[in-house]
Structure prediction request, 295 residues.
Amino acid sequence: MRYSKELIAGMLVAFALSVFAEDFAIRLTERDKVGDRSEFTQTAEVEESMSITMGGNPIKQDEKSYTAKFAGISKVLKIDKLDRGIEYEIIADTLEKRLKGATKSVAILPKGAKIHVAKKGKKQIYLVDGRPASKDVASLLGIFISLPNSKVTDDDIFGTKERKKVGDTWEINSDLAKKDFSRRGMKIENLTGKTKLEKMFIVNGVKYLVVAANMKTGKFTMPLPPFLKTTRSVISADFSGEVPAIPDTTTTKLKSATNMTISFAAEGKPKPEAPIMRMTVKSTRILHSAGKPLK
Prediction:
């Protein structure tokens, strides 16, 4: 028994070396099937502000700061040609929100509420117990639910066709990411980012990969009145997720996280004789998700 520590240490080193020597196919986009059910829990931290001034005098100011939680069981009702869920039924366990400074969260929907979400054109449409969701409910659900709105997938932008080992990094597809943003009305001059295979772990005999990515833009423009010119603009985002090491394994991501900040400012004169109008917008959203498949 005197060599037990050395033996254990040797086994750990051997395991670590085997992990770093093994390479994996990288598949980030989940393949859904109609009827798939998952239990999920999501949390969000949101801080948003907007200010519009004219000649230094406030015209409009709006600030939001809150945390929220969404949990329940989802069922895939419809998929697209890329096997991505585009219509869901969700039985809510929790949908609650707590404003900054409040001591308690407020229930937004009762436990057991049935939510139906689908696309109509470019918009996500929500029904709650068969009726259209209120504006506030739809806005909060939109923080947590994001249905595919283009043919571009996470694999296209953040993935790679090459097999990778733990510790490997690669550049994201910046050109494709910029094109995808342009479909949403945003023109980005510069965009950079990297993806990294951080580690592999095993749960119930299934190998999972932890993949992290980051992305940052330089100056970008979006649809504005002609007299407004962009003076500051940046998007920065960090992503991480746990995905099956064997692509198309019938399971869902265990955990994922997103931290995104958008900062934007513009100014100009609506008329030559008018005072300067200035607009500033900042939004930070931090999302955490955890889920598991149900039979």
In short: The radius of gyration is 23 Å. Residues 20-294 form one domain.
